[in-house]
UniProtKB/TrEMBL annotation:
This is Zinc-type alcohol dehydrogenase-like protein. It holds the Pfam family ADH_zinc_N. One of its GO terms (molecular function) is zinc ion binding. Homotetramer. It is found in: Cytoplasm. InterPro entries: ADH-like_C (IPR013149), ADH-like_N (IPR013154), ADH_Zn_typ-1 (IPR014182), ER (IPR020843), GroES-like_sf (IPR011032), NAD(P)-bd_dom_sf (IPR036291), Quin_OxRdtase/zeta-crystal_CS (IPR002364), Zinc-ADH_QOR/CCCR (IPR051603). Signal peptide: none annotated. One of its GO terms (cellular component) is cytoplasm. Belongs to the zinc-containing alcohol dehydrogenase family. Quinone oxidoreductase subfamily. It comes from Paenibacillus sophorae. CDD domains: AL_MDR.
């Protein structure tokens, strides 16, 4: 029997419908120890993302050890590995982590310091936990993948499909800060209001053809499109309204589409349109040479928040972090109608 300390966690042994109490269970597992560049973090708050749902659903086999989900964490560094250079015990941090490792739905969690940032000083742990995964996705999508300048000189426009969701709420704010005219898509009065509160200049409904709606608000085409919802469903609409030599970035793979099909890339050919994917986990999964860029991005985001230029997208808090509450949040997320971010705090 191990002498190592135990800690609380929430995990899944196999895929089950959320109505089944065994779909996510409360656990006591061994507390890990940091090696290399890992930080051992005392977890204070976690947020739920579509990634949690995807990975829980893929976990459809009998597993000897539980799958721990959770890729949005805010907490306090308890110990540092022998090779750490960026943080010390007592530092307050926030991060998304890596899907190649256990998630953060546990009292203590290991994360590589190169993908963690200093928590915004002006936010509490729950407000900070709402941000990392969506903010990194938005930042990388806009600035790394679409190649948008941090200060746009010309009057350029971006269409953000799914502007009221977690990524959309941050992408809208960052795009406005860069100087873009932001058109967000939203289909309900409450999501339209949320998108506008977070900086959208205009909104259109993603359940109707884009071109006529854009013409009504004075746009023949848009320079950039950031697709955060059902790439296959929206592809023909995107191809129609993207400007010649424009750029499209999507975070939703074809396999996750609500309808069978593929992307007819020839629709983009005559306009010489760039199409690019964004997955925030690429850097950590493949241990890319520029992995530390996520540390830098999170620190820049924290600075923007503390300077009042960016705001958290926290929409709802729950307490404590346990299986029952996580099942509730997963159920809300499965509707596809959640606005902003739901955060759980304290074990």
């Amino acid at each position: 029997m191990s002498n190592r300390q135990k800690m609380k966690a929430v995990g899944a042994y196999r895929y089950l419908p959320l109505s089944d109490p065994e779909s996510l269970v409360d656990l006591h597992i061994e507390k890990p120890a940091p090696t290399g560049r890992d930080l051992l973090v005392e977890v204070k708050a976690v947020s739920v993302n579509p990634a949690d749902l995807d990975i829980r659903e893929k976990n459809n086999y009998e597993a000897e050890s539980p799958k721990i989900l959770g890729w949005d964490v805010a907490g306090i560094v308890e110990q540092v590995g022998p090779e750490c250079q960026l943080f010390k015990p007592g530092d307050e941090i926030f991060y998304a982590g890596s899907v190649a490792r256990a998630g953060g739905n546990s009292e203590f969690h290991l994360v590589d310091e190169r993908i963690a940032g200093n928590k915004p000083k002006s936010l509490d742990f729950a407000q900070a936990a709402a941000l990392p995964l969506t903010s990194l996705t938005a930042w990388e999508g806009l600035f790394d993948r679409l190649g948008i300048s941090h200060s746009v000189e010309e009057n350029e426009s971006i269409l953000i499909i799914g502007a009221a969701g977690g990524v959309g709420s941050i992408a809208t704010q960052l795009a406005k800060l860069a100087g873009l005219t932001v058109i967000g898509t939203a289909s309900r009065p409450e999501s339209v209001q949320w998108a506008k509160e977070h900086g959208a200049d205009f909104t259109i409904n993603h359940n109707s053809p884009f071109a006529p709606q854009l013409k009504e608000i004075g746009f023949e085409t848009v320079d950039y499109i950031f697709c955060l919802n059902d790439t296959v469903q929206h592809f023909a609409n995107m191809a129609e309204v993207i400007a010649p030599q424009g750029k499209i970035c999507s975070i939703v793979p074809v396999a996750k589409s609500s309808q069978a099909g593929s992307l007819d890339m020839d629709l983009l050919f005559s306009k010489s349109v760039t199409f690019v994917w964004e997955l925030m986990f690429t850097r950590s999964m493949y241990q890319t040479k520029d992995m530390i860029k996520q540390h830098d991005i999170l620190n820049q985001l924290a600075e923007l928040i503390d300077n009042g230029k960016l705001k958290t997208t926290l929409a709802e808090r729950l307490e404590p972090i346990n299986a029952a509450n996580l099942r509730l949040v997963h159920e809300k997320m499965e509707t596809g109608r959640s606005i902003g971010k739901i955060v759980l705090e304290n074990f």
